[in-house]
Amino acid sequence: MNTEQELKDLVRDRYDKIAHQDKAVNAASCCGATAPSNKIYNIMMDDYSQVDGYAEDADLGLGCGLPTAFAQIKPGDTVIDLGSGAGNDCFVARHETGPTGKVIGIDFTPSMIAKARANADKLGFNNVEFREGDIDNMPVADAVANVVVSNCVLNLVPNKQKVIAEMFRVLKPGGHFSVSDIVLEGQLPDALRHDAEMYAGCVAGAIQKTVYLNFIKEAGFENITVQKSKPIIIPDDLLEKYLSAAEISDFKSGATGISSITVYGEKSPQSPLASTSGGGLASGKKEKLVLADIKTGATCCGPDCC
User: Fold this and answer.
1) Is residue 290 over pLDDT 60?
2) Does the CA dihedral 69-70-72-77 come out positive or negative?
3) Closest CA to 84 of 14, 136, 133
4) Element holding 107 (H helix, E strand)
């Protein structure tokens, strides 16, 4: 199996390519940086074009939900977007928080940060900033955000528990998150699962829905709610790359499900301000991370990519 750093490097390389190509290429595959399937399948992304604050140049067609629509962002809020890409969700969040609020986008791909900053400059936003860094060790101090959002990113990170702990750390007491992500119910066929591990892109690290929700609960969040769920259907012409006709039939008729879910959770107003997780700027420490076994929940969503 690839190490955690190798998986991160593969994802960073993939999204560097995405940052340098046209949105139409990204939309042709749910993963973006690969050749399209035999047809154009936008099998994951939601349409942002009618959303207030939408900036077309920042929309790379990569999300699997619309978390800002569920995030209950208020004027004056500080919002953090995990895996901010070219800034799409940040600019929508900025519309909600207004000029008195602040939006911080975090991404570990330098070319994405550059693209997002250029977009913010074009829009004239001085209260949207983009920081380069890992979302499992955010370059943000403790208890600074009212709201955390993220759109189809945690599935790409090997150590999801560390990311969720970081979400808890950077939220103010009484703050909340709304995150869209890919989860599984049931086991994928080995051919799909192993290919996902090899490429480490798209939803390569998607895990079981019950495990995902339990990680959130264990981190200390309360009032956890699945705000939206939609099935992700893998096209037949993609399945044919990995499975026989009989295996495709079994897969489609079986109990395995791939879904995009948008999850909400709150940090108790009684939570202490100081972090106990040891991450981020507040402590200056880095905990040893444990590589999540993506064998338990990898999937594939685009040709040759995951």
Assistant:
1) no
2) negative
3) 133
4) strand 102-107
Three-state DSSP state, 83:
coil
Per-residue burial over 117-127, b if 16 or more Cβ lie within 10 Å, else e, is bebbeebebee
Give domain status of residue 285, yes or no: yes
Report the SS3 class of residue 140.
coil
Could you identify the residue written with the tokens 């799409």?
A: 88
Report the domain count for the chain. 1
Q: Pairing mode, if any, of strands 257-266 and 222-231?
A: antiparallel
Decide if 301 is inside a domain: no
CATH code for position 28:
3.40.50.150
Q: Considering the entire predicted model, what is its pTM?
A: 0.80
305 falls within a domain: no
Distance CA 82, CA 105 (A): 6
CA distance 254 to 245: 14
- Quote the percentage of the chain above a pLDDT of 90: 44
Say whether 79 sits in a helix, a strand or coil. strand
Domain-located, residue 303:
no
Q: Which residues contact 114 (CB under 8 A, 6 or more apart)?
A: 19
